[in-house]
């Protein structure tokens, strides 16, 4: 009766899993509000943000982002880490299965009239019975790590897409600012020539000429800085696409306007953002992994059952190998009686790691909400600034036209003309910056909402570990 009961006892114990069962934190405990404070669009339904850059209607920017998604080295690193995490899951699952091995040998004994050859075959197997679920918890933790690595790769993809767009916008803005500076320099050249003629004609003092010369030099001095800023943006775009810094100089040389996106984005509700953001989902998987590892540590406190067996044969001829087969079966039960508190310390340490993972997850949630709120505020501010700079540019342009006419006629001094010219330059530059700021705020909002990948509702599978050549 005891012999029959023993296997059933082992099976019953094998169904026991120590450690806490993971449950995702409720939204209420994460302080997720029902709506955003800033304007979120006419609808609360989240838009499809997987390829948001196409809404800017700039083919070159779209192509650069697609190339970065395929060739960026940060994404390649994240991809390799995903493959590593999935292989770690394979290894964890392998711990649930028996280990088996085989051996074979041939020997030759040489002696006085006693030469003979011996043959032997053997096989052995062992299995660690998962009595208290430590191995199962290890598989659970490795699975969460693999899913977290998948989300980390997608978070890298989201960040790279936004960085490419931001640098592309900066490059186009700098091209526009360079055009403004060069136009202003031509006007400064004209003003300097006019002031010199007036001085030669005795209609003005040399002060006008010196002021015109200083103004022209200051305008010319701003151009090298703008050229350096433009080059830095283009070099960064080259590296982001996985190529040499100078690779895009030719493609970016033609001046194009700053890409303008849609008037608004349907941001949805905060709960949608948390599901959309891959970095938040990666942090949640980190919490799941840390929780499972508490069970791995707790299982070490309980007895460990190991079953092993072997079978073998030996003979002095190949034909006699199977005449006599021997084997054995061994079951061993081990329990740590004293270790100075090391195992219990590991449990406490892992519980602290789970607490840290929970804090990290909560922080990622709050940071995601903050990012969206900041992006909404930045977009709203950029729209208001653009409206005011449009008015300012119209007024400054009219003032400059009148001032140039009056200066040629001798009705105003050069200082008054210089003030109107500076106001026009400031208005043109301000309008260009505000338009680019609106585009940049849109990119910031798309990134904050988690755009740039295709969210999945089910856990990622092995197929998701394969290299991605296209943006999701």
TrEMBL record:
GO molecular function: efflux transmembrane transporter activity
Domain of life: Bacteria
The keyword Membrane is assigned to this record: yes
Membrane topology: Lipid-anchor
Keyword Mitochondrion among UniProt keywords: no
Gene3D superfamilies cross-referenced by the UniProt entry: Outer membrane efflux proteins (OEP) (2.20.200.10)
Chief place where the protein resides: membrane
Annotated InterPro entries: MdtP/NodT-like (IPR010131), OMP_efflux (IPR003423)
GO cellular component terms, A-Z: plasma membrane
SUPFAM superfamilies listed in its UniProt record: Outer membrane efflux proteins (OEP)
Family designation: Belongs to the outer membrane factor (OMF) (TC 1.B.17) family.
Name the UniProt record assigns to this protein: Efflux transporter outer membrane subunit
């Amino acid at each position: 009766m005891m012999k029959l009961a023993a296997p059933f006892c082992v099976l019953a114990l094998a169904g026991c899993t120590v450690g806490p069962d993971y449950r995702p934190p409720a939204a209420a405990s994460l302080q997720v509000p029902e709506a955003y404070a800033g304007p979120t669009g006419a609808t609360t339904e989240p838009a499809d943000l997987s390829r948001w850059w196409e809404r800017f209607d700039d083919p070159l920017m779209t192509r650069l982002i697609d190339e970065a998604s395929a060739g960026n080295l940060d994404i390649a690193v994240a991809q390799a880490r995903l493959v590593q995490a999935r292989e770690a899951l394979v290894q964890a699952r392998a711990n649930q299965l028996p280990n088996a091995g085989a051996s074979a040998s041939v020997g030759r004994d040489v002696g006085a009239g006693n030469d003979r050859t011996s043959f032997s075959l053997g096989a052995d197997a062992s299995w660690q019975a998962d009595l208290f679920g430590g191995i199962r918890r290890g598989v659970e933790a490795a699975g969460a790590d693999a899913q977290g690595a998948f989300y980390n790769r997608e978070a890298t993809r989201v960040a790279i897409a936004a960085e490419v767009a931001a640098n592309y916008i900066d490059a186009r803005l700098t091209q526009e600012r360079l055009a403004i500076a060069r136009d202003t320099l031509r006007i400064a050249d004209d003003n300097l020539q006019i002031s010199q003629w007036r001085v030669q004609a005795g209609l003005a003092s040399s002060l006008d000429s010196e002021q015109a010369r200083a103004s022209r030099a200051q305008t010319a001095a701003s151009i090298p800085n703008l050229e350096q800023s433009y080059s830095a943006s283009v070099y960064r775009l080259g590296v982001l696409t996985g190529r040499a810094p100078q690779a895009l100089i030719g493609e970016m040389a033609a001046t194009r306007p700053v890409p303008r996106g849609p008037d608004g984005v349907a941001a949805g509700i905060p709960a949608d953002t948390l599901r959309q953001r891959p970095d938040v989902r990666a942090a949640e998987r980190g919490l799941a992994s840390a929780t499972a590892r508490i069970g791995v540590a707790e299982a070490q406190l309980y007895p460990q059952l190991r079953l092993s067996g072997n079978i073998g044969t030996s003979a002095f001829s190949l034909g006699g190998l199977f005449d006599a087969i021997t084997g054995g079966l061994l079951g061993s039960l081990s329990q740590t009686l004293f270790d100075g508190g090391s195992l219990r310390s590991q449990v406490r340490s892992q519980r602290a790691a789970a607490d840290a993972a929970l804090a990290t997850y909560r922080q990622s949630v709050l940071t995601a909400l903050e990012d969206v709120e900041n992006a909404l505020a930045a977009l709203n501010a950029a729209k208001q600034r653009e409206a005011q700079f449009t008015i300012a540019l119209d007024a400054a342009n009219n003032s400059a036209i009148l001032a140039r006419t009056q200066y040629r006629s001798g009705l105003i001094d050069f200082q008054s003309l210089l003030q109107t010219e500076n106001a026009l330059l400031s208005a043109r530059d301000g309008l260009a910056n505000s338009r680019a700021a609106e585009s940049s705020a849109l990119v910031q909002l798309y990134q904050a909402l988690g755009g740039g990948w295709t969210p999945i509702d089910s856990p990622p599978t092995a197929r998701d570990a394969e290299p991605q050549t296209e943006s999701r």
